[in-house]
Design a protein that fits this description.
Length: 332
Amino acid sequence: MSNNKEKIENDNEHDNIDQSLIDELLKIKGVGESIAIKLIEANYPTIESIASATILQLNKNADIGEKTAAKIIGNAQEMINISFIDAQQLLEIREDMKRFTTGVEELDKLIGGGVETQSIIEVYGEFRTGKTQVAHQLCVTVQMSEGDGGLDASAIYMDCEGTFRPERIRDMAETFKLDPQLVLKNVQYIRIYNSDHLNVALEKIPQVIMEHNIKLIVVDSIMTHLRSEYIGRGTLSSRQQKLNTFLRKLHKVAEDFSLTVFLTNQVQTDPGVRWGNPTKPIGGNIMAHGSTYRLYLRKASGNKRVAKLVDSPCLPEGEAIFAITEKGIENA
């Protein structure tokens, strides 16, 4: 009797899976319905996600034998036609890449015309420099229509510091003449309590993206828990490996779903610097190499802030000034 009850419960769980996702995976040679369900539940809902997975990942996460996993991955790779392209083709692809506005004209110019999709943007600075304010505003501007500079999409906010405020989202929505209630419903929020919690949440992101048309993921702040959980030089290697895992997962969803990952980061003072700015971001080379764009925010006079583009694969260094007001972040 208990076995029948367990089977019914399992069937009910599978009923929650979108049949179109199952049908898509059934196109892969060697994938039956039971394996398709396993893959979807393990957050491999597309042919592309399976093609870019490793045998070990499918074996561990989806409980699929190594030989079967190897065949499935190989067949998925054949289906998506993995091949080289020339730089001209890549240029054409990048020219079609979508961007959305920050709501600040000078800030948009600094980063090449707006927030780029398929990228990770890291913003670091001392407290009260506007990192979280920018993150809040992007959750609003990404929802604007494409004609107004948005992507007509939704956002995920992963709050590691407990600083997310829906009231702020509401006020910013009113500034851009959007329906505050609708804007709030289009921000998927999760409070993150430790680095393991963040890791689990990142595993669940693909399903949330497909359900809610997500084009922006905010992690505020990426180093908060790693900084407090891994103390001393003896734990540095483990901390950096975990950070690298986070960044690899975020890069993958950014590219697979053509969205933007926006990371805020904390800073520390380098006691060895006698001249110049001793402030530097946490995370070392792993963080530096993992970010597509790096912005350093610092305080100016009054409510003004200075954003400096520190690193970009295609843009020169530069600065932009913006203001933080009750309406949001605005042109200074």
